[in-house]
TrEMBL record:
This is Transposase-associated domain-containing protein. Residues 3-86 form the Transposase-associated domain. Coiled coil: none annotated. It comes from Tanacetum coccineum. It comes from the Eukaryota.
Length: 443
């Protein structure tokens, strides 16, 4: 479609009047519910921007919101102004004005397309570049599912959007695959004949894997000796330390098969107060030095990033969910603890007492708490964070003063030896015997 035609259409009188009516409604509702003096110039009031770029995630001044709506168009799925005071009601099928957006406008009859159709199509199109040629036919089927109503005349859901929303609920509340399969079968029977609902969990997950959201779980030894994959995927005990792969009850010694001994849920068991509210955060801290100059004059900065891990996998590593908590100019060296004091203090507060936070979805306040799962860094950064040497004769941050180190004269390097002492006494790697005063002893 001609871009110039769309831009001209967005400055038509009907569209301009619609933008003015929207901003007037949003400002009036904000003044009414926010106890803002009506005499305050609306130019200084901030409201969420529903353009196709901001999608109500960013607030701007009224004039800037109007500019965005003229430049980018309004999100056509935003039919109820719930972010601006209008009561949330079930969406219904309705024709969408062409001048409301710059995307997803063609010769289709919008009166027969569910209101979430365009957004779902956009989600599918965003993943198409990751497909191989062999998946092209499957991708075309997926695109059809994104536009196909769940059943004839369904006003609110396409086949794909229904599957996505149900899988989201499954993950949110930890429903088992067996339960979810029975639920899908029941829903399919409840819907009118000829509906497009899948009947099994496998079929639903197959659709999501095609969109690039698949994953694979790999168990790990509780002592971090090995991963249970490739040749070790069928082991029930670690071949290095002999520890059971599965969870063992400390009192009854009962082995719970298919429940891995090492899991992220361990943090929940240690700190039950964190698990009381699913909105509490699980954080990871990443710190390392970056040389920002490429010439002869080197300058190092240390960004300290905070990553939120209890988000869906496709969101937790997105840039907008990774916070730059501290930026240290120059190499901090052994004084890094000084620079990290504000961050450590904030993390301590979040863990011990929490902070009062507003939940925009429920429109109420709650006490937000957080726990740090781990830090992410290379070995030199680990030594800096620990305040320990990471090179030389005492270069192990774990062994410290007990580091066994031998200087290799030929290569002028240190060799760290003696690690077998950490293995169990009867481990196979320690069963190399030597003669000592007529006796044999283990190394």
């Amino acid at each position: 479609m001609d871009k110039s035609w769309m831009e001209t259409n967005r400055i038509s009188k009907s569209y301009v009047d619609g933008v003015a009516a929207f901003t007037d409604y949003a400002v009036h509702n904000l003044q009414k519910t926010g106890n803002i003096d009506p005499r305050v110039n609306k130019k200084h009031i901030y409201i969420p921007c529903p353009c196709t770029k901001c999608l109500n995630h960013i607030e701007h001044k009224v004039e800037e919101v109007q500019y965005h709506l003229y430049r980018h168009g309004i999100d056509i799925s935003y039919t109820k102004w719930t972010k601006h005071g209008e009561e949330d009601e079930p969406s219904i099928s309705a024709p969408k004005p062409v001048n409301a957006t710059t995307e997803f406008v063609d010769d289709m009859d919008f009166a027969y397309i569910p209101t979430d159709g365009p957004a779902t199509v956009e989600m599918v199109n965003a993943t198409k570049d990751n497909f191989d040629v062999d998946d092209l036919v499957k991708f075309q089927e997926l695109l059809l599912d994104a536009e196909k109503p769940l059943y004839e005349g369904c006003p609110d859901f396409t086949k794909l959007s229904a599957i996505v929303k149900l899988l989201n609920l499954k993950g949110k509340y930890g429903a088992s695959d067996k339960f979810f399969t029975e639920l899908l079968g029941l829903i399919k029977k409840m819907l009118p004949a000829g509906n497009e609902m899948v009947e099994k969990t496998y079929q639903a997950k197959k659709v999501m894997r095609l969109m690039g959201s698949g994953y694979k779980k790999i168990h790990v030894c509780i002592n971090n000796c090995l991963l249970y994959w490739k040749n070790d995927k069928d082991l029930t005990a670690c071949r290095t330390c002999g520890t059971s792969r599965w969870k063992v009850d400390n009192k009854t010694k009962k082995i719970y098969e298919n429940i891995p001994a090492k899991a992220w849920r361990t943090i929940d068991e240690k700190f039950p107060k964190i698990t009381e509210d699913t909105r509490n955060l699980r954080l990871g801290i990443s710190a390392d030095g970056v040389d920002v100059n490429t010439g002869n004059m080197h300058h190092s900065v240390w960004p300290v990033l905070t990553v939120i891990y209890n988000l869906p996998p496709w969101l937790c590593m997105k840039r907008k969910f990774i916070n730059l908590s501290v930026l240290i100019s120059g190499y901090p060296g052994n004084d890094i603890d000084v620079f990290l004091e504000p961050l450590v203090d904030d993390l301590h507060t979040l863990f011990e007492t929490g902070v009062d936070t507003y939940d925009a979805s429920t429109k109420d306040n709650f006490n937000l708490r957080a726990v740090v799962l781990w830090t992410i860094n290379d070995y030199p950064a680990l030594g800096t964070l620990c305040g320990c040497p990471y090179s030389g004769f005492k270069g192990c941050v774990v062994c410290g003063k007990d580091t066994n180190c031998v200087r290799l004269s030929a290569s002028s390097k240190q060799s760290y030896v003696g690690h077998r002492r950490y293995l169990p006494y009867n481990h196979s790697f320690r069963k190399q015997k030597k003669a000592f005063n007529g006796q044999q002893e283990f190394l």
